[in-house]
Amino acid sequence: MIPATILANDVVTLEGVPDISDVASLVEIMGAKIERNLEEGRLVIDTRSVVSRPLPYGKINSLRASYYFNGALLGRFGQATVGLPGGCDLGPRPTDLHDKAFKDLGAKKIQEEEAEHLEVIGDSLVGTTIYMDVVSVGATINTMLAASRAKGLTIIENAAREPEIIDVATLLNNMGAQVRGAGTDIIRITGVDEMHGAQHTVIPDRIEAGTYLALAAAMGDGVIIENVIYEHLESFIAKLEEMGVGLTIREDSIEVHKSENLKSVNITSVPYPGFATDLQQPITPLLLKAKGRGSIVDTIYQKRVNHVPELSRMGANISVLDDRIIYDAPNELTGSCVQATDLRAGAALVTAGILPVELQKSLILSLSYLVMTTLLKN
To answer: Which keywords describe this protein according to UniProt (predicted)?
Structure first.
């Protein structure tokens, strides 16, 4: 969302921006003039001072979202030099779909030691039809960013359909772009020469909300999660209800009731609108409170299993077999020293750590979940 504002060459105001370290790093890296109201979640970004320059490698290397600067800078300036993206270690996370889309639009890539340089061949990017071999949120967004300033019509086939895609498209349209079909598997972008400032409210984070729902269900004391869009979490909520978690769903909040006699379920993470890969780790501690055997299969990141040995260290009967997580529950977990190797694993271990637990590498959690410790204390 933040890199997209570069396309405007104007002042863009974002509302509902979370106070997390990724946001602070992104606004520092891009070189725009910033006014930030943490209490109200408002971010005013003036990108008129942004120039085409290599972006620093230091903080870029810790951010997966940094690769969105490629699409935004390429769209506005016709070139981009951005340090290689970082993020959590979830196994292979290639950017070949991004590179293919940029190439199809008319850009060439020069691989440098710690960065990649992209530049337009000719006068500008040119719209075309781009088929995504694999459904990819990141590649879909990056293509939308670059294509918004390309000449002519770009069609993205097999596009990702996540709510975040619609949110970015809404921002781009507010800034003067012409994006149609976001939320379906075919997106059409008619490029424009100029984009302007706008005001946009960011949608609530469905992954954060889902994590809190799992935490609330595990605590079993009755908790209300506010600022939730139910429709963005239907597949996740369906699994909670299948387990026997009592929920009261309201317009923008969900109340989690005290639930007993939970049933084990099988979970398979798939692209939206299916069960989100980012929620398979946070829900795992709740599964360990259920009765029976179940499994988790992550079809997006097959190696997203780093939380399993840590939960096993706490006494969970859980293991990995051929990239499939198998668990037998219920389990009585005990306090232990565990290691959060990635963001979602950290969220899972914090949920499991309702019991006494010492969490190493806790700085990972500062990337998100800013109120989780407050929720636990209360």
So the answer is: Cell cycle, Cell division, Cell shape, Cell wall biogenesis/degradation, Cytoplasm, Peptidoglycan synthesis, Transferase
Closest by CA position to 136, among listed 64, 198, 228: 64
**How large is the average pLDDT for residues 82-95?**
63
Segment 103-119, tens digit of pLDDT: 999 999 998 877 889 99
For the chain, which domains are there? 3-201 (3.65.10.10), 206-377 (3.65.10.10)
> Which sequence positions are flagged as catalytic?
88
> In b/e form, how buried is each residue of 256-284, taking b as 16+ CB within 10 angstroms?
beebeebebbebebebbeebbbbbbbbbb
Q: State the Cα–Cα distance between residues 91 and 85, nearest whole angstrom.
A: 14
CA gap 306, 12 in Å, rounded: 39
Rounded to two decimals, the pTM is: 0.90
